[in-house]
Write a structure and sequence with these properties.
There is one protein chain. The chain is mostly helical. It has helices at residues 2-13, 18-30, 34-47, 52-64, 68-81, 86-98, 103-116, 121-134, 137-150, 155-167, 171-184. Helices cover 77% and strands 0% of the residues. The protein is elongated and about 60 Å long.
Length: 192
């Protein structure tokens, strides 16, 4: 309720703000007002064609309404038109995987994001998720290990590596990963 009031106030004071229009669209979508959400996302994109959150909202809405082909075209056009925006490429990769189950396009798009920024930690995590969805635990483990190298103090990443090894029946590797997680945080419940 407080968020709605704040957005209403912002909409009144900043009616042309693409950020405000996007947030209004997200709220409308959450409340089931698909027509209002479409209008808000479209308005936000008209003012700022690089607004990734508005693009994501509009594509999600199109998929929910059964317009998968239109959503796919919109996403493909956004990816083709990007100058290498890592944020857009990661979001696009997630949308290809989660909404369209096109894991090849998802992986290709996320790898493109990593070419733009090899330190994009979110992209490494997403690659691991894509491989898990495909049932390729070996590749998922490789991506999580790479992420862990870049974030060596992450208990969650170490634990995820352990879980992936465990799922593959590589008990010694899993144990080593869990021990690394415990060395970072002796109270890490999932690793103990």
């Amino acid at each position: 309720v407080a968020a709605e009031r704040a957005l209403k106030l912002l909409s009144t004071n900043l009616p042309d703000s693409p950020v405000v229009r996007t947030e209004v669209g997200r709220l409308q979508l959450a409340k089931g007002d698909k027509n209002g959400a479409r209008g808000s996302f479209t308005s936000a994109l008209a003012k700022d064609p690089t607004n990734v959150t508005a693009l994501e909202g509009l594509i999600t809405l199109e998929v929910q309404e059964g317009h998968r082909d239109a959503a796919r075209r919109r996403l493909d056009e956004a990816v083709a038109g990007t100058g290498g925006s890592g944020e857009l490429l990661v979001v696009a990769g997630r949308l290809y995987a989660d909404l369209m189950s096109d894991f090849a396009a998802a992986e290709k798009t996320v790898r493109r994001a990593l070419q733009t920024n090899p330190d994009n930690l979110e992209a490494f995590g997403l690659l691991a998720r894509i491989h898990i969805k495909k049932g390729d635990l070996t590749s998922a483990t490789t991506e999580m290990e790479e992420l862990t190298k870049r974030q060596p103090k992450s208990v969650g990443n170490q634990t995820a590596v352990g879980m992936l090894f465990h799922l593959q029946g590589k008990v010694d590797n899993a144990k080593a990963a869990y021990e690394r997680a415990l060395a970072l945080d002796g109270k890490a419940p999932i690793a103990s």
